[in-house]
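Propose amino acids for all 466 sites.
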């Protein structure tokens, strides 16, 4: 038989128990926050008709996995959870509005893999559909803020802006409207690439750190200077940002919407240094129409945005006879979990077993299994050793899997009606205190015998001590 080399596709990965456990903790924490705001769950298929998925804009459409199925129907894997939601809202016309949903499912993008960035990843969205007021946007931002706080993170920043203001800047700089999305995407690179790189991309282009040529947009010098004037506006506080943009552009709808969001955030007591106005925030997708927002962890900046979103009042209109207002935010769960594990904010768990029952006598397997059933019925996760090997090998197996307790029942124990319980964590707890070999052996590293009738109570006491 030909040997097939085992390997994963580029941008895809296998996920093991420690990260899965950490992921579940993150999801359950954020779910509680979102449900407290009145959001309810929704799930949609992984595959959609290709025509459903192509409303993201030219750049995003290049990253959608599309193919023809066996019936020659053109389909695609969902790129995010927003487009499927838009299809749902147009398809099920009796859904009560406002519709507030959260959704936790995998998405796929033919994207360049990077730190915390994969081609298959778990996304966690909240959206409010049917409300045109930016108070809905403010509530989404507040829910983001509350969920990050609930995870035990204090050093973070949520940046907000408004696409309508960027539209006014395009007019201010006297740039053709057809170039607006390209300008937005370049401005959105400011925090990652820096001011000089952004200005170069707006003009003749630049050479990046790898030596690759980045083509410029070819704007005129006076146009670039006006964009720069906008980018460097004072915005150390939300009040200062609103004042400076008003002086530059005058009154406009986008500024007024930010004022309303600012007023809401002040009213609910959001820390002013945690939610800031940053006019360089544009978000990459072309369908955003109003407020946009994203969150980063200040202690893990290399992971980039861990939450982000905005208002998209025209996307649902692609599938319906009317424009239906909507706003929402997405969490890249995999990126967030990896960042939190790196920071030590959340820990995974490689093993769920509380007790390993070792096998000393093969002909007593039924007795070992009966004890395992008894322990499981009392809520104690119990594994019966299935491999081969002596007691040393079995205890080594338990130690490598971080199983805290081993049960040993040999011929003598069966005769006496007792069970030997070994706390495998005792070595770590006592080795710093007990140095002499005789004392070490006398301490027996947490090992002791109890009556079979008392084994459940004894194990619970050992587990509760940790």
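Proposal:
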């Amino acid at each position: 038989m030909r040997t097939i080399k085992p390997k994963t596709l580029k941008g895809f990965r296998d996920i093991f128990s420690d990260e899965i456990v950490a992921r579940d903790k993150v999801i359950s924490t954020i779910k509680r926050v979102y449900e407290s705001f009145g959001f309810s769950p929704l799930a949609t298929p992984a595959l959609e008709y290709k025509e459903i998925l192509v409303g993201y804009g030219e750049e995003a459409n290049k990253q959608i996995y599309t193919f023809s199925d066996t019936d020659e129907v053109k389909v695609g894997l969902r790129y995010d959870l927003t487009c499927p939601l838009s299809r749902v809202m147009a398809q099920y016309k009796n859904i009560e509005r406002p519709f507030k949903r959260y959704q936790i499912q995998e998405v796929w993008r033919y994207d360049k893999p990077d730190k915390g960035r994969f081609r298959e990843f778990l996304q966690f969205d909240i959206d409010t559909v049917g409300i045109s007021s930016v108070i809905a946007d403010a509530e989404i931002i507040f829910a983001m803020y509350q969920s990050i706080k609930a995870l035990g993170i204090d050093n973070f920043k949520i940046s907000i802006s408004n696409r309508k203001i960027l539209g006014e800047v395009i007019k201010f700089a006297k740039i053709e409207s057809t170039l607006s999305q390209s300008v937005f995407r370049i401005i959105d690179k400011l925090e990652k690439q820096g001011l000089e790189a952004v200005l170069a991309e707006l003009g003749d282009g630049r050479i990046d750190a790898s030596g690759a040529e980045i083509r410029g947009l070819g704007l005129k010098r006076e146009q670039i200077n006006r964009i720069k004037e906008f980018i460097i506006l004072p915005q150390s506080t939300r009040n200062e940002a609103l004042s400076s943009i008003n002086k530059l552009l005058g009154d406009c709808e986008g500024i007024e919407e930010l004022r309303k969001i600012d007023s809401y955030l002040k009213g609910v007591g959001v820390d002013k240094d945690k939610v800031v106005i940053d006019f360089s925030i544009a978000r990459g997708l072309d369908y955003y129409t109003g407020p946009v927002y994203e969150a980063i962890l200040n202690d893990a900046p290399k992971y980039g945005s861990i939450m982000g979103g905005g208002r998209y009042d025209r996307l649902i209109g692609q599938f319906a006879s009317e424009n239906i207002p909507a706003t929402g935010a997405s969490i890249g769960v995999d990126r967030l979990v990896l960042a939190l594990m790196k920071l030590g904010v959340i820990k995974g768990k490689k093993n769920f077993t509380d007790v390993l029952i070792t096998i000393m006598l093969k002909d007593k397997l039924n007795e070992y299994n009966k004890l395992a059933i008894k322990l499981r019925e009392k809520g104690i996760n119990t594994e019966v050793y299935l491999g081969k090997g002596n007691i040393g090998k079995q205890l080594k197996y338990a130690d490598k899997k971080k199983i805290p307790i081993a049960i040993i029942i040999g011929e003598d124990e069966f005769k006496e009606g007792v069970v030997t319980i070994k706390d495998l964590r005792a070595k770590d707890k006592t080795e710093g205190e007990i140095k002499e070999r005789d004392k070490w052996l006398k301490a027996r590293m947490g090992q002791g015998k109890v009556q079979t009738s008392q084994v459940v109570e004894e194990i619970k006491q050992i587990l509760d001590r940790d």
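Residues 17-343 form a domain with the BirA Bifunctional Protein; domain 2 fold (CATH 3.30.930.10). Residues 10 and 113 are 8 Å apart (CA to CA).
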